[in-house]
């Protein structure tokens, strides 16, 4: 964990001292969908981590938006003859600082703040204590950091990859630039 923090600090220092420009113009809306490869659940994955986001370019380098993600997995315990499904939902806001490395390629780092809802459902068996312990929902707030890179094929469509603590530790996806729009409250 300490090495990961050191790497994150080095990336931020490198990017912060670079004289780079932005890939997006102020006022543009960006939509994306992703799939994760390192889920935040245990057991056999029944639905890989998926996420959707909508972002707004506040300035040429600062982008803010919303994010939602979901994943599901199944677990079993041979000793108690149990089988259950774990579900994880994450919703929240995110902000990033972006640097354009080439005309079509940028890197970014940012923060996510949101709410995590974890639930488990008993599929087979009975708890020996005559209570449904697995039927509960657990929610907590989450603050997480992420770093990523984005490649735009043209001005509207592209691909991205991110590393960070979210619905998955590693996500890849598609991104669409929906163009410039003025939001009435900004």
Sum up the structure in keywords.
Porin; 1 helix; 8-stranded antiparallel beta barrel; mainly beta; 186 residues
Architecture overview:
- Helix content is 9%, strand content 61%.
- The chain has 186 residues and is mainly β.
- It has one domain (22-179): Beta Barrel (Porin).
- Strand 6 (137-152) and strand 7 form a beta hairpin.
- The longest helix is centred in the first third of the chain and has 16 residues, at 2-17.
- It starts with a helix and ends in a 6-residue tail after the last strand.
The total count of helices amounts to 1
**How would you classify the helix and strand content by structural class?**
mainly beta
| Highest-level CATH class | Mainly Beta
Q: Please provide the count of β strands.
A: 8
The largest sheet, given as strand count, sense and whether it forms a barrel, is: 8 strands, antiparallel, barrel
CATH topology: Porin
Tell me the series of helices and strands, N- to C-terminal: HEEEEEEEE
Q: What is the strand arrangement across the widest sheet? A: 1-2-3-4-5-6-7-8
Domain tally: 1
| Strand content bin | over 45%
Q: Which stretches are poorly predicted, pLDDT < 50 over at least 5 residues?
A: 7-22
Gross geometry: elongated
- Taking all Cα atoms into account, the compactness measure Rg is 19 Å
Which whole number gives the mean pLDDT?
83
Q: Give the N-to-C terminal Cα separation.
A: 38 Å
